Each structure stands twice: as structure tokens, then as C-alpha cells.
Amino acid sequence: MGLIGENIKNYRIEKGMTQKELADKLFVTAQAVSRWENNEVEPSLNTIVILAEIFEVSVDELCGKEKPVVETQVVNNYVYEEPIKQHLAVCEICNKPIYESDDIVRNHHARNSVKVCCKECHKKDEEALLESRKNAAKSRFVKSFWISGIIAVIYLIVAIIICVNNKNISAIFVNLGIGVSIFTCISCIVLDNNFIGGMIVGIMEWGFVRMPGVIFELSLDGLLWLITVKLLLWILQITIAIIIGLFAIVLGCTLSIIVYPFALVKNIKHPELEA
């Protein structure tokens, strides 16, 4: 079948069809037709029969053979033609024809697009996706410890030094609690399987208040007035953003003490779940 790719291309051009139009008639992709025409792969026998019907030529002409090839079965001295089972689709991963509708699976995980594939390829893709999610969860688990641990330790060291210098030993216990909340908050954010990170960002967005416009007179005094008011509004805007941001962080640190154990268990027991 060395000439079949060239014949498919020639007959397709004679019919005035594009690769996409031919692919739609065969329920395959244009890439599959291109690979046939470039002799990278050969279509299945059933596909060749359908191609011959589309081009209105014989299978022998399409394959470039001089002698006809007929699939027959002789029973009791009678000749019966083998029934040709038409395929419903072609797997876009392994390029094999699919004959049963129950074996057609639409894969939604392949690079954010939908691909038609067989059950075997879909199962392999699901297993690969599951393994990828587990590895990502393990990576977040490790990062949640060393990132939050380093930040919490740095805070505690600085806080303890300040408390010792000020001879305020009782404040050390308060800072220990704050250090724990910092650890749990950052861990929840890194684990990314809970609402803490989204809640903090959502509350912080409230702090970006849009200030009203300023009406001014087009003169030196008016420009000075504009600059003064804009500066005050800018300072007010930053102050509001800082206050709301601190509130979001404090609320996140407080709630994370409760949420962190559940997030940790979820990461350990169900690492395959989406973050």
C-alpha cells in the first residue's frame, strides 16, 4: 500500500474536498487524513473501503493494485462476501477505529480540549492524570511544611528577642500562639485544598476602593487644590487597603487553626482530589 497515501490525496483533490471535509465524512481528524496522505500511517481496511466509496473507485484502484482483492468465504460451494462492519469513529490517540458506540469516550483532560478516544486510551489518560494529581498534592504537602515553618520560626525568633530585651516574658506565650497561626495559615494557602487563601484574597480586594473624581478650577490655586486632594485620597486609599488587608490576614490566621487539620487530612487521604 505504498501508493495509497498519494492516491488518497489525488482522489480527494479530484473530488474538490479538503482534508477537513474528508475527515468529517470518516469521523476522524484532519491530522489523521494528513498522516495517511504523507504515508506516515495507513488507514484500516474498513476505512479504505469507505474511502473507495467516497471517491467512487474500487479498492484496488485506491490501493494501486492491478489484481482485485476480494474477501470471500466459501461454504457449501457457495461464495459469500464478508460483511463489512463500518466504524463509528477513530481514536485520536492511538488512531484505531471504534466500532461500538459504548466504546467511544470523549476525553476532556487532553490540554483543555475534547478528544474522541477509545476506552483503553481514556483509562490510560485517567490513570496518568490521577498520578499527576497525587504527585502535585505530595509536592504541596512538603512545601506547606518548610515554607510555613521557615516563616513561623523567623517570626518567633524575632519576637522572642524583642520580648527578652523588653523583659516581657509573658508576651512570649502570645507570640507563640501567633507563630502557630502564621504556620497554619501559610500551610493552608500552600495546600490549596481549602477556602483560606481565596477568602484572604477576596477580602483584600474590598480594600481597593475607587475614590471619587475631583472638580477643580483651571488655575494655579486649582491645580494646587487638585494635587492636595488627590494626595489625601491616595493616602486614604492606601490606609483603607492596609486596614482591610490586615483584617483579612488576621481572620485567615485565626480560622486556619481550625481548618488546617482538615486540610492536612484531606491532602493525605485524598491527594488525587483537585485543589
Account of the protein in words:
The chain has helices spanning 4-14, 19-26, 30-37, 45-55, 59-63, 119-165, 170-191, 196-206, 220-269, and strands spanning 72-75, 78-81, 89-90, 97-98, 104-110, 113-118. 63% of the residues lie in helices and 9% in strands. Helix 6 (119-165) runs antiparallel to helix 7 (170-191) and helix 8 (196-206) packs antiparallel against helix 9 (220-269). The longest helix is centred in the C-terminal third of the chain and has 50 residues, at 220-269. It is built from nine helices and six strands.
Give a brief description:
The chain is mainly alpha-helical and 275 residues long. The protein has helices at 4-14, 19-26, 30-37, 45-55, 59-63, 119-165, 170-191, 196-206, 220-269; strands at residues 72-75, 78-81, 89-90, 97-98, 104-110, 113-118. A hairpin with a 2-residue loop joins strand 1 and strand 2.
Task: Please tag this protein with its features.
275 residues, 9 helices, 9% strand, elongated, mainly alpha
List the helices and strands and how they pair.
Blueprint: H1 4-14, H2 19-26, H3 30-37, H4 45-55, H5 59-63, E1 72-75, E2 78-81, E3 89-90, E4 97-98, E5 104-110, E6 113-118, H6 119-165, H7 170-191, H8 196-206, H9 220-269
Antiparallel strand pairs: 1-2, 3-4, 5-6
Helix pairs in contact: 2-3, 6-7, 7-9, 8-9
Strand content: 5-15%
Radius of gyration: 34 Å
Report the biggest beta sheet as strand number plus sense, adding barrel if it closes. 2 strands, antiparallel
Q: Spans with pLDDT under 50 lasting ≥5 residues? A: 67-72
Strand order in space, largest sheet:
1-2
> Which structural class matches the secondary elements?
mainly alpha
Helix content: 55-70%
Mean of residue pLDDT?
Answer: 83
Oligomeric category: single chain
SSE string, helices as H and strands as E: HHHHHEEEEEEHHHH
Query: What is the number of E strands?
Result: 6
Q: State the helix count.
A: 9
Shape: elongated
- Between the first and last Cα atoms, what is the distance in angstroms? 50 Å
